[in-house]
Amino acid sequence: MKGDHVWYEKQPEHRTIGKTERDGMIEVTTAPWYCQWVYQGDLRILTVPVGYVWDGASIPRVAWTAIGLTPGGLMDAPSLAHDTLYRAAGGKKPSGWHGCRLTNKNGNVVQVGRAEADWVLREMAEYAGVRRARSAVAYGVVRAFGALHWGGPMPAARKGIVP
């Protein structure tokens, strides 16, 4: 949309605390992280606290090959914002927030739909420096298969892996 955009100051500070059952990495934030975006004229401000756990960019590894990216690096911020929105079903599932907040410019809590959450992933990837064609493939994957994970549980590490 014309005028819609995303911005954040830095990639999130985090560390790996284990692996999922599918051997994907489990990450935890080690500093608060903030991002903002304007979507269809509405300002959103996402606040993620220290200790938020997410599974990075968890699309199937075969898709990573097609996209030509690795799950970490440039995709850390886009995956964190996208995961936060997905786990909480865009704010409709308060227990999914785990201390995160999504507000408008007046500080009022807001909710978003899957389409906006997926748009955030694509726009943040481009803001981070991912080529437009590659971010479009990632966007297509989450649009096609993301509904399976909308409102899903927080990722859990295998026993014995988390320090």
Describe the structure.
- The chain is of the alpha+beta class and 163 residues long.
- The protein has one domain (5-149).
- The protein is built from four helices and seven strands, in the order ββββββααβαα.
- It has helices spanning 61-67, 76-87, 114-128, 132-145; strands spanning 5-8, 14-19, 25-29, 33-39, 42-48, 53-54, 101-103.
- The strands form two sheets. It has a four-stranded antiparallel beta sheet with strand order 1-4-5-7, with helices on one face. It has a three-stranded antiparallel beta sheet with strand order 2-3-6.
- It starts with a strand and ends in an 18-residue tail after the last helix.
- The mean pLDDT is 85.
Strand order of the largest sheet: 1-4-5-7
- Please, what is the average pLDDT? 85
Strand content: 15-25%
Structural class label: alpha+beta
Number of strands: 7
N-to-C series of helices and strands: EEEEEEHHEHH
Q: Helix share of residues?
A: 25-40%
Instruction: Name the overall outline.
Output: globular
Observed structural traits:
alpha+beta; four-stranded antiparallel sheet; 163 residues; 21% strand; globular
Task: Please summarize what this structure is.
The chain is α+β, with helices and mostly antiparallel strands.
List the SSEs and their pairings:
Elements: E1 5-8, E2 14-19, E3 25-29, E4 33-39, E5 42-48, E6 53-54, H1 61-67, H2 76-87, E7 101-103, H3 114-128, H4 132-145
Antiparallel strand pairs: 1-4, 2-3, 3-6, 4-5, 5-7
Helix pairs in contact: 1-4, 2-3, 3-4
